[in-house]
Amino acid sequence: MTILCSAIAKLQVGNAVSRMARRFATVLRPAMGLGIALTLLGAGAAPLSAEAPAPRRKPGWQTHFEATLREQHAHPPRLVFLGDSIIQELRNTSPRFGDINQVWRRYYACRGALNLGFGGDTTGNVLWRLRHGELAGTDPRLVVVLIGTNDLSPRWDASPAQTTTGVWSVVKAVHDAVPHAHILLLGLLPRQKRNRLRRQVNRKLSHMAWSALGARYRDVSDVLGQDGQPDPAYYREASLDRPLLHPNAAGWTRIARAIEPEIIATLGGGAEICRTGE
Q1: What predicted TM-score, i.e. pTM, was given to this entire model?
Q2: Does one domain contain both 113 and 183?
């Protein structure tokens, strides 16, 4: 009994320390560097909820974050894509990603586009990035936002309501950071697992007053499948025997064509200006 009580006491103390670490990271975040925040959150702290502002502890995440801060100042963007790995893969030139990068070069590279996609990020991770300098000091004309699918993953298990709240917070943070920019919010893309939850999120997103944040909502689910179900022909995982989640080059081409009218309406011109430069 004494041993059991001692173990319980240690567990309670550990949980208290974790809660304290998260509280300090939240309160002191504006005054801390990224490394200190990561240390506090990593010192035995339990994972935060998906929509809570927090950096990731993944190796290389901090380096990527700092690199994007330098890039946004070195090359002020006219067009920004903000999100997770679905966005990030557009810039990936690795052979295993096929021809996805060609979509970026064909439609966006010549338009002063900046890719702010971070693999594995949730709405909370993106919100943290925005509160720590992402987009600060820039003046893009259009920001395309696609975020929230990782919130629904088993790791975070966020509800549709929580995910919707996270997406709203991200769009508001974008609007606060670049108030003169137009924002195009894309609905979550069809996925093989937890697709019912994804559809619930999109249904909620479609009824929100995005115009108050200078944003427009667009659900492009229909270009990647029928009746909200993903078509394997448009997903990278189809050839890997893994659950469908990331669009392949064909899928991204269909998305690019679907949102091109909104991009032209904001930036002017057409994607042919990029095609001629290939």
Answers
A1: 0.82
A2: yes
Residues 22 and 65 both lie in one domain:
no
Structural domain boundaries enclosing 118: 49-275
Ramachandran assignment for 76, one of left (phi > 0), alpha (psi -120 to 50 degrees), beta (any other): beta
Angle of helix 34-42 relative to helix 61-74, nearest 10 degrees, comes to 160
The tokens for 230 are: 């993903």
Rounded-to-integer distance, Cα 231 and Cα 233, Å = 5
Q: How many CA atoms lie within 13 A of 248 on its CB side?
A: 17
Tally of domains in the chain:
2
Q: Do residues 3 and 126 both lie within one domain?
A: no
Q: Over its length of 278 residues, how does the chain's per-residue pLDDT go in tens digits?
A: 444 444 444 444 344 434 444 443 443 333 334 444 444 344 334 445 888 999 999 999 999 999 999 999 999 999 999 999 999 999 988 887 778 999 999 999 999 999 999 999 999 999 999 999 999 999 999 999 999 999 999 999 999 999 999 999 999 999 999 999 999 999 999 999 999 999 999 999 999 999 999 999 999 999 999 999 999 999 999 988 899 999 999 999 999 999 999 999 999 876 556 764 44
